[in-house]
Amino acid sequence: MLRAGPPSHTLLRLPLLQLLLLLLVQAVGRGLGRASPAGGPLEDVVIERYHIPRVCPREVQMGDFVRYHYNGTFEDGKKFDSSYDRHTLVAIVVGVGRLITGMDRGLMGMCVNERRRLIVPPHLGYGSIGVAGLIPPDATLYFDVVLLDVWNKEDTVQVSTLLRPPHCPRMVQDSDFVRYHYNGTLLDGTAFDTSYSKGGTYDTYVGSGWLIKGMDQGLLGMCPGERRKIVIPPFLAYGEKGYGTVIPSQASLVFHVLLIDVHNPKDTVQLETLELPPGCVRRAVAGDFMRYHYNGSLMDGTLFDSSYSRNHTYNTYVGQGYIIPGMDQGLQGSCMGERRRIIIPPHLAYGENGTGDKIPGSAVLIFDVHVIDFHNPADPVEIKTLSRPLETCNETAKLGDFVHYHYNCSLLDGTRLFSSHDYGAPQEATLGAHKVIEGLDTGLQGMCVGERRQLVVPPHLAHGESGVLHLHQGSSQ
Ligand SMILES: *[C@@H]1O[C@H](CO)[C@@H](O)[C@H](O)[C@H]1NC(C)=O
Ligand SMILES: *[C@@H]1O[C@H](CO)[C@@H](O)[C@H](O)[C@H]1NC(C)=O
Ligand SMILES: *[C@@H]1O[C@H](CO)[C@@H](O)[C@H](O)[C@H]1NC(C)=O
Ligand SMILES: *[C@@H]1O[C@H](CO)[C@@H](O)[C@H](O)[C@H]1NC(C)=O
Ligand SMILES: *[C@@H]1O[C@H](CO)[C@@H](O)[C@H](O)[C@H]1NC(C)=O
Ligand SMILES: *[C@@H]1O[C@H](CO)[C@@H](O)[C@H](O)[C@H]1NC(C)=O
Ligand SMILES: *[C@@H]1O[C@H](CO)[C@@H](O)[C@H](O)[C@H]1NC(C)=O
């Protein structure tokens, strides 16, 4: 029953035979139409459905294209034909007269993976003539059939979403680059390929001709983390040619897909402010030195790195190429104390090769950043006078003066470090004698007795890059 099979003694109709059979069918219909109940000639195909699969998404209809295997025997059990002997199954349109009528009728309503026995009376088979050397005249034929595939020229790609994550940051569009896992099977469940055997995701462009047409369509609209079943008719897959030894000609394909990652080569860094402290006046610019915490994860939620695991902020200059370009861009414009999400496409991160064993090639990176503080090496001490006793302020502190003062010292995020009040007595120092940090020395100058000031001292005018570990009285100075 192959369209281009070996010498066709098989059950495809020959034109001459067809004509003969037509006459025959009519003759039989008139003459022997009323079949006798007990052992008399059959009027129609007898169908015995001895295995019906639990799920049957589709039943064979007239005009459908089917692929099936069969064994053909006579009543006595003797085999006269079998698709198995030719190691290829039958792939043909059903119900349009390309098969013997008994087969055309017998396949109707069948499900994929169903097994049937068909008993075909001679007038729906090869009639009173038979096939020379193969099928004697007036033979009743017995067929055991298993259906493996059914599709139709009107079919489209069928997409069903099996699981969709509650949060969908973006959906696949044409020209996007995607990374996904898949299991590919034929319609009867035979596995032909899987991404899992290759130790990584399948990575490709969508809608750019790299994939079979059906896959290009079936991936559209998918979110990272979504699972889909995509059923593709052969004309949107590998068609008549099939693929290697694994995908037969005219086979429908079923893909179970899990989308891991999606981005577009045109993407830029995406920012989302998660928390913005009130009263932010200064925003980070290129050249600033920043201390921040971060959690870095992939689009599917896998955490690949976190500053918290090191119990230490990540400290770096921003916008100077010390960090990946996406981060250099994404940190700028942030405020101290701000929490922002920075989504970085691979071309602004680790590119198509990825890095280490945690960041795969072409991976989008999502950083949740908490900006602790930043300053600029050019920053001077920031001096803000809180109160000043005007009437008594006839003299201000200058270089060489000996001063007594109280202070509270904290980090920019409010963490209290040390205070002169803890020691009972005020601090004392000679200005300009390098007894206190440079910033404090500068900030004390010009003060009058009774004045209160707030000094913001950048690290290069304080304890520098190394900071101080152990505090004791005086070390703050
Ligand atoms: C056809 O016969 C072979 C060999 O006995 C058997 O393995 C196969 O399952 C049969 N096919 C059908 C559709 O019954
Ligand atoms: C593919 O099959 C494996 C094994 O059954 C399963 O663990 C995995 O989740 C499947 N993947 C998809 C995308 O369905
Ligand atoms: C970070 O601090 C926690 C809690 O104090 C500790 O258990 C952990 O070992 C520290 N990790 C590192 C890398 O120092
Ligand atoms: C990625 O790896 C390939 C093969 O190792 C190498 O030829 C290529 O230059 C790398 N690309 C980048 C951007 O590093
Ligand atoms: C990083 O993750 C930890 C643990 O989930 C969380 O406590 C912390 O707030 C996160 N940091 C940022 C900047 O999102
Ligand atoms: C500054 O003013 C106070 C009070 O008005 C006064 O007692 C003191 O002598 C003045 N000092 C100088 C140096 O003028
Ligand atoms: C330091 O803090 C304490 C407690 O809040 C406060 O009483 C004191 O006035 C502060 N000192 C200065 C110099 O601001």
TrEMBL record:
Protein name as annotated: peptidylprolyl isomerase
Domain PPIase FKBP-type: 63-151, 175-263, 287-375, 400-477
Record's keyword terms, sorted: Isomerase, Repeat, Rotamase, Signal
Gene that this polypeptide is encoded by: FKBP10
Record InterPro entries: FKBP-like_isomerase (IPR051989), PPIase_dom_sf (IPR046357), PPIase_FKBP_dom (IPR001179)
GO molecular function: isomerase activity
Reactions performed catalytically: [protein]-peptidylproline (omega=180) = [protein]-peptidylproline (omega=0)
Lineage of producing organism: Eukaryota, Metazoa, Chordata, Craniata, Vertebrata
Organism: Bos indicus (Zebu)
Repeat keyword on record: yes
